[in-house]
TrEMBL record:
This is ATP-dependent DNA helicase RecG. It is an enzyme of class 5 (isomerase). GO terms for molecular function: 3'-5' DNA helicase activity; ATP binding; DNA binding; hydrolase activity. Coiled coil: none annotated. Residues 475-631 form the Helicase C-terminal domain. It catalyses: ATP + H2O = ADP + phosphate + H(+); Couples ATP hydrolysis with the unwinding of duplex DNA by translocating in the 3'-5' direction.
C-alpha cells in the first residue's frame, strides 16, 4: 500500500488549478503517460527545468542589449491604439526612463485591459525581450507588467522547462507552481552523516530547489538539490534491484553436481577449442551452481565472442545433474537459431532438446509440453512462451536468458512470480559500461568474455555517401560472383510502417535487377512482417548458400550467426545508433575469413552523425563503442529503455552522478542486509521512497513468502 503521505503527489494532475482536459492531454504527452489519468502531480515535480530566465538585468532602456531579457521601470507617456478594429497595426504604448524611450507592442491588444495595466503618467515595471530597430527600442508582449511599487513581486529568476507543442512555458510554470506546495515532508531515508558531508538538502527542499532556481548554478547537475534527487533516484533503483535479488536468492538453488560426461562429449565434437575467456566464464558458472545459493550471473560478451557455447556448457552440467534447462531468446529468429546451433552441438552427446515459441501450436505444442512435464525434454529453447502458465517443468534447474537488452527487470520478476526459481544466467550482447550494469542489473555477478575466438580477422569498415551506391553494387557483384555472402540492411523505424517495408522490398528488387540474372537469383529478402516459417526458410537458405545476398531489415540485428557471411552493407547508417550499428556489423567477422562493413550514409551529417560513423570506422571494440555511445546519446536510449521497460532516470545522470550511484548501491545493500523486510523506521521511510519513484514493484515480494 502506498503511504498516505504520498496521496497528494499521486493525485491526478486534473485536480490542479489551470489543468483542464486539454492541458491534461498535453501533460500526458509530455510525460509519456498513456492517458491523462496516469499523469500525476509527482510527474510535474520530477520535470526538471533545463535553464532559467534571469530578469535581474535592469540596465535602463538606452543600455538594454539587443535580444536580451531585461526589466525596465519607466513612466507611461502615451497610448496609440490601432486606427480601427480590423487593422493589422498593433497597439502601442510608449514609456520612458531617464535614459531613453521604449515602445511596448501588442498585437490584438484590448484597449480597456491595456489602459488599466498601463495608466498614463504612472510608473510601471515591465520585463521581456528587447528589440532594437532603427535606433528605437521596443518590447513585444512583455512577459510581465506590474506597478513600479509592486516590482518586488516580479519573479526575477524563472525556470524554463522542456515543453511539448501546444503547451506554453507560462502555463506549465503556473501548473508546476501549483503542484509544488503539495510536496509533503518526507520521512528521512538518507543517512544523516552522508547528507551533511555532501551538503544535501531534504528531499522536500530539493524539489523546491529544483523548481525555484536562483542562479545558473542551481540548474547545474551538481547543484545540491539535483544531487539529492539523483541520490534518491539511484537509491530507489538500487533498492528495488536489491529486493528482486534478495527475492531471487531467497529460495536456495539446487546444487548442480556436474559429472562432466556430457560436456566432454560436446567439447570433443566441436571443431574448435574454447577461448581462455570462455573457459574462465564456464568455471565461474560451475562454481556458482555447485554452491547452495542460487546463481544470478550476467554473462557479458561482445558480438561474436561465443556466449552460446558458455551457456551450453552450463546447461550440460545441469542435465548431468538430472535437471532441465531453458534458454529464452528475445526473438523468434534467435530462438530458432539457438535451437539449430545447440541441436548440432549436442547431437553427439545425445541431449534431447525442444523448441517452444509462440508459433508452436496445436498437437505439436501439446506433445512438447508433455515432454517438458515428464522431464524427457532436457533443454527447451524458445521465446517468452517458455514461461506461460501452461508450461510445467519437471525439474527446471537453470534459466539462461539471452537478454540482448530486450527483457529487463520485469521479465526476470515475472519468472520468479511463477514460482520458478532456477539458477539464472543472463546474457547481454552489447557490452555495457559498469555504471550501466549497476543501474540496470544491480549487484549481479558478472562474467566477461573479453577475447574473441582465435583466427578472427579485423573487419574493415568503410563509410561512403549514398550517391556512390553504384560503385558498391559493382564491387558487391564481383564479390558474390567470387562465392562470398553478404547482408544488405535497410533501416526500419517501425515494423509496422508501410513506407519502410516498401523501401526494403524496393531495394531487393533493384538489387536483383542490378546484379544480373545469375547472381540476381541468389538474392533473398527478410523482414519482420514475414511469418516465422518464412523467416526460417530464408535464414536456412542463407546458411546453406542457396541465397548469397540477404536484403534485410534490422530483424537480423541481434545474434544471427552465419559465420561465412563476410560483407555487410548498411544503408542510411546515419539513422542508426552506435550500439545498433555495432550489433549489425557483428553479423560479419564471425569466421576466419576477412570481412568488410560498408556504411552508406546520406549527408549532410550532423556533428553527432559524423562522430558516430567515425567511431565505427576507428574501432571494433564494443566496450569503447558503448562508452562513446553513452557520451553521444545518454543512458536511457542506450539501455533501450522503451523496449525493456527498465525505467529511465528522471533526474539522475550516470555521467554526472556516477559517485552517487556508487554510494546508493552501498547504502541499498546495507539497508537490505540490516532490514530485509523494510520494517524499521528507516525501512518504512525507504518504502515511501520506492513509491515516490514508482519503483515499488519489488515491495510486493516482501510479503510473498
Ligand atoms: N572458441 C571458439 N573458437 C572459434 N569459434 C568459436 C568459438 N566459440 C564460438 N565460436 C563461433 O563463433 C561464432 C559466434 O558465437 P556466438 O554465436 O556464441 O556469439 P555471441 O557471443 O552469441 O555473439 P552475438 O552477441 O553476436 O550473437 C559462432 O559461429 C560460434 O560457433
Amino acid at each position: 500500500m502506498r503511504p498516505a503521505i504520498l496521496d497528494p503527489l499521486f493525485s491526478s494532475v486534473s485536480g490542479l488549478p489551470g489543468v483542464g482536459p486539454k492541458i491534461a492531454e498535453l501533460l500526458a504527452k509530455l510525460f509519456g503517460r498513456e492517458t491523462p489519468e496516469d499523469c500525476r502531480v509527482v510527474d510535474l515535480l520530477f520535470h526538471a527545468p533545463h535553464s532559467l530566465i534571469d530578469r535581474r538585468n535592469q540596465p535602463g532602456i538606452a543600455r538594454a542589449p539587443q535580444g536580451a531579457i531585461v526589466t525596465i521601470t519607466g513612466r507611461v507617456d502615451r497610448h496609440q491604439p490601432p486606427p480601427n478594429k480590423k487593422s493589422n497595426v498593433p497597439y502601442r504604448v510608449f514609456l520612458h526612463d531617464e535614459t531613453g524611450e521604449l515602445t511596448l507592442v501588442f498585437f490584438r491588444g484590448q484597449s480597456t485591459w491595456l489602459e488599466k495595466q498601463l495608466p498614463l503618467d504612472e510608473e510601471v515595471t515591465v520585463s521581456g525581450k528587447i528589440d532594437w530597430f532603427n535606433g528605437r527600442a521596443s518590447m513585444v508582449h512583455p512577459d510581465y507588467i506590474v506597478k513600479a511599487s509592486e516590482a518586488e513581486n516580479l519573479p526575477l529568476v524563472e525556470p524554463i522547462y522542456p515543453l511539448t507543442a501546444g503547451l506554453s512555458p507560462k502555463t506549465l510554470r503556473k501548473i508546476i507552481e501549483a503542484a509544488l506546495p503539495k510536496t509533503p515532508d518526507f520521512p528521512e531515508w538518507i543517512d544523516q552523516a552522508l547528507a551533511e558531508k555532501q551538503g544535501l538538502p531534504s528531499t522536500a527542499d530539493a524539489f523546491h530547489g529544483l523548481h525555484e532556481p536562483r542562479d545558473p548554478a542551481d540548474i547545474d547537475p551538481q547543484a545540491p538539490a539535483r544531487r539529492r534527487l539523483a541520490y534518491d533516484e539511484f537509491l530507489a533503483g538500487q533498492l528495488s534491484l536489491a529486493l528482486v535479488r534478495q527475492r531471487l536468492r531467497k529460495v536456495a538453488g539446487q546444487p548442480v553436481h556436474a559429472t562432466g560426461h556430457l560436456s566432454r562429449q560436446i567439447l570433443e565434437a566441436l571443431p574448435f577449442s574454447p577461448t581462455g575467456s570462455q573457459t574462465e566464464a564456464i568455471a565461474q558458472i560451475m562454481k556458482d551452481m555447485a554452491g547452495d545459493d542460487r546463481m544470478l550471473r550476467l554473462l557479458q560478451g561482445d558480438v561474436g565472442s561465443g556466449k552460446t557455447l558458455v551457456a551450453l556448457m552450463a546447461m550440460a552440467a545441469v542435465i548431468e545433474s538430472g535437471g532441465q534447462a531453458v534458454l529464452m531468446a528475445p526473438t523468434e529468429i534467435l530462438a530458432r537459431q539457438h535451437h539449430a546451433t545447440i541441436a548440432k552441438y549436442t547431437a553427439a552427446a545425445g541431449i534431447r532438446i525442444e523448441a517452444l515459441t509462440g508459433r508452436t501450436k496445436g498437437k505439436e505444442r501439446d506433445e512438447i509440453l508433455e515432454r517438458i512435464a515428464s522431464g524427457e525434454a532436457q533443454i527447451v529453447i524458445g521465446t517468452h512462451a517458455l514461461f506461460q502458465d501452461t508450461v510445467n517443468y519437471k525439474n527446471l534447474m537453470l534459466a539462461v536468458v539471452d537478454e540482448q537488452h530486450r527483457f529487463g527487470v520485469h521479465q526476470r520478476l515475472r519468472l520468479t512470480a511463477k514460482g520458478i526459481t532456477p539458477h539464472m544466467l543472463v546474457m547481454t550482447a552489447t557490452p555495457i559500461p559498469r555504471t550501466l550494469v549497476l543501474a540496470a542489473f544491480g549487484d549481479m555477478d558478472v562474467s566477461k568474455l573479453t577475447e574473441k575466438p582465435a583466427g578472427r580477422k579485423p573487419i574493415q569498415t568503410i563509410t561512403i555517401p549514398t550517391e556512390r551506391i553504384g560503385d558498391i553494387v559493382g564491387r558487391l557483384k564481383a564479390a558474390l560472383a567470387d562465392g562470398k555472402k553478404a547482408y544488405w540492411i535497410c533501416p526500419l523505424v517501425e515494423e509496422t510502417e508501410e513506407s519502410d517495408l516498401m523501401s526494403v522490398e524496393e531495394r531487393h528488387a533493384t538489387l536483383v535487377s542490378a546484379l544480373g540474372r545469375a547472381i540476381g537469383s541468389q538474392v533473398g529478402l527478410i523482414h519482420g512482417r514475414m511469418s516465422g516459417s518464412e523467416k526460417d526458410a530464408i535464414m536456412m537458405a542463407f546458411k546453406s548458400g542457396e541465397i548469397r545476398l540477404l536484403v534485410a531489415t534490422t530483424v537480423v540485428e541481434v545474434g544471427v550467426d552465419v559465420p561465412d557471411a563476410t560483407i555487410m552493407v548498411i544503408e542510411h547508417a546515419e539513422r542508426f545508433g552506435l550500439a545498433q550499428l555495432h550489433q549489425l556489423r557483428g553479423r560479419v567477422g564471425r569466421g576466419d575469413e576477412a570481412s568488410t562493413c560498408i556504411l552508406l550514409y546520406r549527408g549532410p551529417l550532423g556533428e553527432t552523425g559524423h562522430a558516430r560513423l567515425t567511431i565505427m570506422r576507428d574501432t571494433e571494440d564494443g566496450f569503447r563503442i558503448a562508452e562513446e555511445d553513452l557520451k553521444l546519446r545518454g543512458e536511457g536510449e542506450l539501455l533501450g529503455t522503451r523496449q525493456s521497460g527498465t525505467p529511465g532516470f528522471r533526474i539522475a545522470s550516470l555521467e554526472a552522478h556516477a559517485d552517487l550511484l556508487e554510494i546508493a548501491r552501498k547504502d541499498a545493500a546495507y539497508l537490505i542486509e540490516r532490514d530485509p523486510e523494510l520494517t524499521s523506521e528507516r525501512g518504512n521511510a525507504v518504502r515511501t521512497l520506492l513509491y515516490l519513484f514508482r519503483r515499488d514493484e519489488a515491495i510486493r515480494f516482501l510479503h510473498a513468502g
